[in-house]
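Troubleshooting entry. Yesterday's outputs looked truncated, so today I'm pasting the complete records for two proteins to confirm everything comes through intact. If either block looks cut off, that's the bug. Protein one:
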Amino acid sequence: MTPELNLSLPEAPRPRARPGMLQWLTFLLVAAVLVLLLLEQNGAPSGDKAGSPQEVERLKALATDLERRTLYPQAERVWDEYMTVANLTPEEAARTLYRRGKCLKEGGQYAEAARRLMEVETSTIPREEKHKSRQLLLECLAGLGKQDVRDSVARAFATRGEETGTALARIGSDTITKEELRAEITDSLEQALKLQGAPLTPSELSLKATEMAETQLSNPESARAALLQAISSRILYRKGLERGFADDAAMLEATSRFRRNFIAHRVVESELESAMKNLGTTDLANHYEAHKERFVEKPGAEFSYANFPSLSNAEAALDRLRDDSSAQGEELQKAAGMAVAGQPVPEIGPSAEITVHLLALGEGELSDRPIEHDGSFYIFRIDKKRHKRQLSLEEAESLVKADLATLKRKDAIDSLQAQLSQEFHVEILDENLLEQGAPAQAAPPAHAAPATPVKTSNTKPSPEQ
């Protein structure tokens, strides 16, 4: 049987539909997502994670400037952005977190500041910097009213192995270390040197105080006395905490006053440091030539002496010395030093009468009479006289530097005062406190303390003021 022939035509292939706009957009979106995923997987930096060096420096400078202008909330936000775009080392990140915490604390955001400072606690930064961060954290906890937590954290900090150092004493759970004692002695000596008017830069003062502290610690008696004083201070501090003195009005006012004065003092110290660093050999030589009369060696006298409890004993000894010159070595002892006008008498102390008496005697002469001082009667013999003479520049270099530094300090303070008087608006509201004929808005007098002037009004000044 013959099969039927299929004479129908084959179907034409169906035309392919062209992709529409929606399909193209979907494809491009998927491709972009895949590219971003690949870049992230390969560690390529994106615009949100890393910025150009110029952008990083711009943010850092902006944040620092905002801090200087006391715009702390704005500064903290810029520091946050800086951390996002900058490629920081762990140590740099910790320092930036500290600055963010400080800005938050100054802005009154104690809880958020404490969180940032706790992040600093887990980092590895130098001990001095971590100590500052811990102090700020304790202030934040106190500001939150969590005194119990604050005291507990403070004790934990004090007893950690990293902070204990060489333990010298322990009061309850608190430890006094050799490092803490050295720091306290150094600070006390540095303040004493400043009160004496030592013509040194702040860094030189610190170095001198450190050397003196090491000498004091090397003496067992001096070190023990300093340790006992530190123990007494810690005990009184703990008792004050128990009595609630840490948060009363007097403490808050004193803390605020200290902070204000200390910050102002640091501004002055930084200006003085810059001024005194610029002293060169030419400056010293010119100052020496212009004021030679100031740099002379004063007359002096090396002497031997003896003291007696009564006038009669002193007169009898003086008679023996006049009659028998060979007995002078047995009766008198040589003083370790030279009597100079305006200075304490060596081994005796300040006495203008004894100084005048010694300088009036000739070399080899004995006292013509006993001199009474501090309940005793003294007789003297002059061993050697020193006459007034002009010092060379080499001999007087330290004196010239001290004298010139005094002038530089005064110039630096006057310059700072003038600059700040122009920068900050000052208005004296009490007319009774105005100088005769002076306007209400005026710069402080030249002799005023060189601290940052403030607006003396009852309204709170803006940060720009």
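Protein two, checking that the full record survives here as well:
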Amino acid sequence: MPTHIVKCTQCGTDLDVSSFAPGQIVACPCGAQLTVPPRPLQATQPPPPASQVGAQPPPPQAGAYPTPPNVPPMGPPAPPYQQARATCKEANLALIFGIISIFCFSIILGPIAIALGSKAKKILATNPHLAGSGKATAGLVIGIITTILGAIWLIVLIASLASQ
């Protein structure tokens, strides 16, 4: 244990008060009464030499760091969890049929996508708790485009067969 030295205010004698608690009264050989002050903090280590600037610091000693205070979290509290809205089944089907009609059977699947998209739009208008408006619109638009392209393709096919 490091020594704790106190200088007498009357005679100037250095007294070792390491074995006494702070606040305890100690008598000097000259007869003066001294109160033991709190122990000074441990001296900190000097900064490392320039050659060790990038080196790893030594591991902390037990009790070297104070425990952090109990600080409440910053910012407003998180909003309560909201359950996801159910998606309209017809909107999903309209989008699926519209995408498939791009690749095959556009003259058949396009009108189905249009019918399901229109039905989904009506259902979504009456039930605001359902999600899927974007899917219904996408299925409707894709269905219209593929039906028009399919009809054009069918007209061109019939015209080319009739000219032969």
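Both blocks look complete. Sanity check on protein two: The longest strand covers residues 5-7.
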